[in-house]
C-alpha cells in the first residue's frame, strides 16, 4: 500500500509547476509599474466650466496638413470635457488625410458644440465665422504662427489665449533661423501663451535647452504642459494561434527617420530561424530598397485609412521604432509610441525609450536589454518563451494594459485640457451657428 504522503506528491508538484508558470509570466511581463502620473488615472472625468458662465469660443487650428493624430487627440479631449453650455469648437484644418474623418466623426458623436471643419485658408474669415475666439489651440503652431501671422497679430491685440503645440523643441532657440521664438515673444511678454509638448523629454528640452537662450524675463513667464496624443480607434482581435508574428514599422518612410540598413541586416540574420516573422512597413512616402534575401519577409502597406492602419497594427506582435537618430529621445516625439497605445500593440522599448516617454511602463513594451537592437529583442522574446501559448498570453497581457493606459491618458488629457481652456473673458457675444453638421 502506497503511503498517503506519496499520493500527495503529484498534487504538490502540479501546484509548484503552476506557481512557476505564474511567476514566469509576471516576471516576463516586466516589473510592477512605478507610481507616476500616467498610471491609470481614475476618478470622475474633468469637466470644463467657463468662469464667465457663458460658453467659450475655441478655435482648433491645424494648417500644417500632417498632424491628424495630434488633432484627433485634442478633439477627443475637447469632446470629453465640453458641451454646448460651456464651449463652442471651431475647427480649421488644412487637410484630413488617410480618411481620418470617420474616426473624428465617431469621436464627436452626438456633441452639437463642434462645428463642421473648414479649410485653414479661411482662417482670415474668423471674424464672421467665430468672432473673437477666447482660446486658440494651435496644433501646428510653428507653422500656423508664420502662415497666418496677420491673424495671430490680431489675436494678440485682442487678448486671445494661445495654446502653442511644440513639435521641434530645438527650433525654439532665441537665435534660430526658424524664428519661432521671435514670433511668439510678444505672446510670452503678455502672458497669453501656453506651450504644449507631446512628451516629457521634449518638454525638458524646450525648458532646459531652448528657453535657456531666451531673455530672463521670458524664461520666468514660460508656461508648459505635456499632452499625450492618444485617442480611441477600432482594434481587431488577434488570431489564435497567430499564423504570422507581425512586426510593424509605422509612419513616414524617410530614411532620415528610420535606420533601415540596420533593421534589414538584423532581420536577415533571424529569418531562417523564425519563419513565422514578417515585417510590415505601414505608412507613406518613398519605400526604402529591401535586400533580395528578405523581400519575401517585408511587405509595404501604403496609404491605408487610419481605421485600417490601427486595425492592422493591432493584430501584430510588436511595433518596431528603428529610430535613425537620437532626436526622438531628446528633441521631438515619435508617433510610434502613442500609436502603440492607440492600437494596443507593444512597442519594442529600451530603458532609453522609457526614460524619454515616461507615460510608458516596462510591462507595456517588449523590453530591449542594454546593447540589444529591436530585432535582437524580438528574437530573444520568441526563442526564449516556452511556447506559442505563453507568448500569446504575454501579448494579451500587454494589450490589455495598453488599452487601459489609453483610457487613463484620455482622462488625464481631459484634466490638462480644462487648464488650457482657462482664459480672460471678452465682451464678444457673437457665435457662428451655421454648418454645425459634420458631413464627410
Q: How many structural units, i.e. domains?
A: 2
| Overall shape | globular
SSE order, as H and E? HEHEHEHEHHEHEHHEEHEEHEHHEHEHH
Which structural class do the helices and strands define? alpha/beta
Named CATH topology of the largest domain:
Rossmann fold
Which second-level CATH architecture of the largest domain applies?
A: 3-Layer(aba) Sandwich
In which range does the helix fraction lie?
Answer: 40-55%
Unreliable runs: 21-40, 432-440
Question: What does this 3D model show about the protein?
Answer:
- The protein is α/β, with parallel strands linked by helices.
- It folds into two domains: 184 residues, Rossmann fold, CATH 3.40.50; 161 residues, Glycogen Phosphorylase B (Rossmann fold, 3-Layer(aba) Sandwich).
- The chain contains 16 helices and 13 strands.
- The protein has a seven-stranded parallel beta sheet with strand order 3-2-1-4-5-6-7, sandwiched between helices. It has a four-stranded parallel beta sheet with strand order 10-9-8-11, with no helix packed on it. It has a two-stranded parallel sheet with strand order 12-13.
- Helix 2 crosses helix 16, helix 10 runs parallel beside helix 15 and helix 13 crosses helix 16.
- The longest helix has 33 residues.
Short description:
With 440 residues, the chain is an alpha/beta fold. Helices cover 40% and strands 15% of the residues. Strand 12 (347-350), helix 14 and strand 13 (365-368) form a beta-alpha-beta unit.
